[in-house]
Amino acid sequence: MDAFLASRVLAKDDDWADSIARAVGMQTAADDVVRAVVQQARQNGATWQVIGDALGVSRQAAFQRYGKPIDPRTGEPMNTTPLPGVAELAASVIADLAAGHWARVTERLDPTMRDGLSEDALAAAWAQLVGLSGAFEGRGAPEVARAGDLTITNTPLAFEAGDYTARISFRDDHTIAGLHILEGQKS
Predict the structure, then answer these.
(1) Cα separation of 101 and 80, whole Å?
(2) For the chain, how big is the Rg over CA atoms in Å?
(3) Are residues 135 and 127 in contact, defined by beta-carbon separation less than 8 angstroms?
């Protein structure tokens, strides 16, 4: 924000809390205007590519923020709200993997995953990562998105000699429906 605009927002008596609240209100109003213009653009035939370009993001990012996906199974709008607390769930799964708590991870798997992924197989997969890239060093903040019936987290992982992304998909009952370690960090 430039100095002129900031001076219009700031209270004369330096009431910073009030000034910050007004600035947040302006930001919220601006977000509402952008949302309305995007909806109008879509109604008038603008593609997500055009909208994404105007917003300075990919067409997928524009759709994920402003789109209203329709469930092909029901014809109704899809739930696009991520599962609450899912970032913490993903972090705890990664902590269990790093600590070698294979049983804790497999207990969280949904029935289909549990049938296909044993503790031994999970341990072997983690050992392969360590063999390729050295010891686990840490994780970054997860990115979270809702896709259909799942909430998907993408968490950057750092090993001594390589970067990966842990993609963990959660069902609404907090069970794990998918667990993938992808080479490189996804943004």
Answers:
(1) 32
(2) 22
(3) no
Token couple for 10: 């700031």
Take residue 61 and report the two structure tokens written for it.
């990012």
Could you tell me which of 83, 81, 102 has the C-alpha nearest to residue 93? Answer: 102
Contact yes or no for 49/67 (Cβ under 8 A): no
pTM of the predicted model as reported, rounded to 2 decimal places = 0.71
148 phi and psi, to 5 degrees? 65, -125
Q: Tell me: the pLDDT tens digits for 44-95? A: 999 999 999 999 999 988 998 888 888 899 999 888 889 999 999 999 999 9
**Residue 159, SS3?**
strand
Measure the CA–CA gap between 39 and 28, rounded to whole angstroms. 17
